Amino acid sequence: MTTPRFRPSRRDVLEGTTAAAACLAAGLPGLAPAHAAPALSPMAGGADVRLTVNGEARSLSLDPRTTLLDALRDHLDLTGAKKGCDHGQCGACTVLVGGRRVVSCLTLAVMHEGDEVVTVEGLAAGDDLHPMQAAFLERDAFQCGFCTPGQICSGVGMLAEAKAGWPSNVSGDLLARGDLDDGEIRERMSGNLCRCAAYPNIVAAIRDVSEGGAL
């Protein structure tokens, strides 16, 4: 014999819901009242971060979620590094941290407590341009200029990596430390995009600096 299934009517559902609400309002043992849930509150204060930026000690109080890029642009007025994709894919925000190139939109400022940061503004020595800056001008290695600060910083960092013997995906000999050919330069700079497609002149500028031994 099949047991008949209970099918509550709309009236049963409404009466049950009303009764449950009344019990909660009265406060049943073991049930916390709704107002006991902790309320979300805005951040009470910032994080103190000390950086050496372009040779100058700087102290900032930042939201811990602030990226290094936003700290440079919005808090230190160093707008050379550009916010392009904001996803670490275009390289326009590249700066040097401890001499190594970093896409500053993907790293938090608080992660670099005490680090030395160099932006494109800090490469020149007074009125004397950095060799990479001078080569970009000589080779006309830019058009709109939006990506240029990141390209220049990345070029400086890349040549330091090559000088230290770091191979690339196209290196024929992983232990060789010879001159960089165009293929090597293109591969090592592939993280920096130029929507104007000034790549031939960018490669030429970096090759000039490499062959000149300025770095």
Automatic annotation (TrEMBL):
- Which segments constitute the 2Fe-2S ferredoxin-type domain? 47-123
Q: Which Pfam families match?
A: Fer2, Fer2_2
Q: Which residues form the signal peptide?
A: 1-36
Q: Which UniProt keywords apply?
A: 2Fe-2S, Iron, Iron-sulfur, Metal-binding, Oxidoreductase, Signal
User: Know the name of this protein?
Assistant: Aldehyde dehydrogenase iron-sulfur subunit
- Output the InterPro entries linked to this UniProt entry: 2Fe-2S-bd, 2Fe-2S-bd_dom_sf, 2Fe-2S_ferredoxin-like_sf, 2Fe-2S_ferredoxin-type, 2Fe2S_fd_BS, Aldehyde_Oxdr_Iron-Sulfur, Beta-grasp_dom_sf, TAT_signal
CDD domains in the record? fer2
Q: Which organism is it from?
A: Methylopila turkensis
Is-annotated flag, keyword Iron-sulfur?
yes
- Taxonomy, superkingdom: Bacteria
GO MF term list? 2 iron, 2 sulfur cluster binding; metal ion binding; oxidoreductase activity, acting on the aldehyde or oxo group of donors
